[in-house]
Specification:
This protein has 12 helices and 5 strands. The protein is an alpha/beta fold.
Length: 206
C-alpha cells in the first residue's frame, strides 16, 4: 500500500488557535478567540492565504493583503507569518507511525498545502527524503487541496492507480476529495486513532 501523509496537523504541529494565542497574547486570551482570529487570518486556507499556499503570492504580499483586509497592524501580521516555521515541529507519535509503516514495507509519500518559504524550511530542517519516497507541496505545483487537479497531479507523481493510495489528512474536505478520486482516505485526528485505523485495515500489526 502507498500511504500519503498531509503535513500540517498530521506530521507537523499545526493548531492555529493556540498558535495565534501564543503569538498575540495581547490580542487573544482564549482558544475560542484564537479560533475566531484564525478563521479571519487564514480564511480556511482560501483567499489571500490560499494564494500564498499555491505559491502565487509572496510572504510580503500575503502580509500586506491580510493587514489591509483585517485592519490588523502590518507588523503584527508579519510576526505571525515569521513564526509559522517554528510552529511546524514534528509530532513525535506520527514520527513513530512513519517509522513503523516503513518497517512494515509500505511506501510513503506526502501531499501538503504549504507555501514556498515554509516548504523550503521543512526540506532544510528535516530529513523528508528519509521519511518519504516523494511528495508534493502546493507552493511548488501551483495547485491546492481539495482541488481535483492537485490529486490528479499527485497520482501522476506517485505513479500508481488511485485505488492503491491511502491518504491521511486532518481536514474533512480533503478526505472527501481524495475519496471522490477513488483513493482510500482516513480523517486524521491524532496519531493513536490513525494507528488503530491502520491496524484495522491490516496495514500494521497491533
Amino acid at each position: 500500500m502507498k500511504i500519503v501523509f498531509d503535513f500540517g496537523g498530521v506530521v507537523f504541529r499545526w493548531h492555529p488557535a493556540s498558535f495565534l494565542a501564543r503569538i498575540w497574547p495581547h490580542r487573544i486570551e482564549t482558544l475560542e478567540q484564537g479560533a475566531a482570529a484564525a478563521a479571519v487570518f487564514f480564511q480556511n486556507y482560501g483567499g489571500d492565504w490560499g494564494l500564498f499556499d499555491q505559491g502565487l503570492i509572496s510572504a510580503d504580499e500575503v502580509v500586506r493583503r491580510i493587514a489591509a483586509r483585517t485592519g490588523w497592524p502590518l507588523g503584527e501580521v508579519a510576526a505571525v507569518v515569521r513564526a509559522v516555521p517554528d510552529e511546524l515541529m514534528p509530532i513525535p507519535a506520527t514520527q513513530v507511525l512513519i517509522r513503523d509503516l516503513r518497517a512494515a514495507g509500505h511506501t510513503l509519500h506526502f501531499l501538503s498545502n504549504m507555501p514556498l518559504p515554509f516548504a523550503e524550511h521543512l526540506r532544510k530542517a528535516y530529513p523528508l527524503h528519509e521519511w518519504f519516497v516523494s511528495g508534493l507541496f502546493s507552493g511548488h505545483v501551483k495547485q491546492i487541496k481539495p482541488s481535483a487537479e492537485m490529486f490528479a497531479l499527485a497520482e501522476r507523481h506517485f505513479g500508481v492507480p488511485p485505488q492503491e493510495l491511502l491518504f491521511l489528512d486532518d481536514h474533512p474536505v480533503n478526505v472527501e476529495a481524495a475519496l471522490a478520486r477513488d483513493w482510500q482516505a482516513v480523517l486524521f485526528t491524532d496519531p493513536a486513532s490513525a494507528r488503530r485505523e491502520l491496524v484495522s485495515r491490516r496495514l500494521l500489526n497491533a
